[in-house]
Amino acid sequence: MRRWFAAGRADSVGLAMLTIVDRIPHGHRRVPWPLPNLWLGVSTERQKEADERIPDLLATPAAVRFISAEPLLGPIDLSRLPFPKSCICDAADPHLNVLDATVYCDGCCEGPERVDIGKLDWVIVGGESGPGARPMHPDWARALRDQCAAAGIPFFFKQWGSWREPTDDDGPFDTAKGRMNRPPAFIVKPEDGTVHCFLPPGPNHRCRVMLEVGKKAAGRLLDGVEHNGMPEAER
Asked: Domain residue spans in the chain?
């Protein structure tokens, strides 16, 4: 790949180069940027990975910059990423909204400040599949869908993974049976995605029952809608 860049072939391909990485290595910045056909993304499974990886992504020029929240294993708020610089009013703990490239602080009297850091162009969301797959709480996917809709960012819902919410067509199920239920049924906590046979103590109004039905049966409809949002790269 490094020799391919050095030979000057990177921008002569007729197709877009779709690349997803866990981290943006420093070596990428030694090649000529931006490549006009490079779509560059990072994986963001939880808020922790989003906080760590998205700032490096936005600091790296590309035709399209996106995140792949797959498997989505926790809630992600794209409007509250840590921002290392001080706010315009010198308030503590400023936050970066990567959907509109603004910085704001809670209680800041000056309002949001636009920064020259760029913003995300695309958000991909999907659940985990395969042996030992963990469920994706529905509110996590809905929250990212709603954040993108409010900011006008294309949203692509790839799959539920191995788990989905029950539908009216599902027969009776009993989470007390756990994996003995057919299909396996558990209660999922929104805070951390842990599974339970019974409602955990404390506030639990956002806990959801999820059924392990397999990737094909789970499908890719979110609230009955197929989300196929795609960015339009400049040509």
From this structure: 2-78+120-162+215-226
